[in-house]
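HUMAN: Forgive my ignorance: could you write out one protein's sequence and backbone structure tokens?

ASSISTANT:
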Amino acid sequence: MPFQKLQPRRGSMLLYIVLLVVALGLMLSARQCSTSRIGLPPDMTAGGDTLNVAIEISPTSLSLAGDTLSGAYYNLLRQTCASHNLPVRFHPYTRLEDALQWLSEGRCRLIVGDLPVTAELRDSLIFLNPVGVDKQVLVQLRDSSAVQTQFDLGGRTVHLPASSPYIQRLRNLSHEIGDTIYITEDPEYSSEQLVILTALGEIPLAVVNSETASALKSRYPRLDTSVEISLNQFQSWALSPRDSLLRDSLNLWLSR
């Protein structure tokens, strides 16, 4: 089903987001293949030798086009595990804090997504070798009272998913510009959904990685993503610090 542009009506927008998440969840839970399975994370953790993977729903990691699952990270990991006869089950997430909780509870062993390799995340996670490079950008409406530079963010409110790894960057930026940037942590919506809310005029500003911003800008041409929030950063996948053997194996496999 083609992706349709939304009109800025709060009721229809919320209904769309709910239906989108439900539809994607149903598709993911129903689709299976010989070397990988998609399941709901809380109570469908696979046992035995199966690698349980929390994977972010995003244009880079995992997305749904028609009835086909795609995403560079999804395809890369699925093919890598298949070549080494390692069964894998994917558990989609939209909020990083959910994936971190599953990791701490042992429900998954690997988090796959657009994770910036930062000092803050290194305190509680270990990372694979970088799988890409990206940067954070500000998303706003082009015809609004636009933010032209980082200095214009003083006194503005920026929306991010709860526990987003980009929160610390905004706090550091607030110190750099010598003014307060107000951060609203949304407990429900993912980065992709916050971009949609920005496109509809429901929230003023959001920060996402440039890959996600570019993918959604093609669908919502009124969006402006020209203001960079960070320099280029390595993107990687994360494991629990006690899982160094799995890290070494995956690094070796992926390097080939």
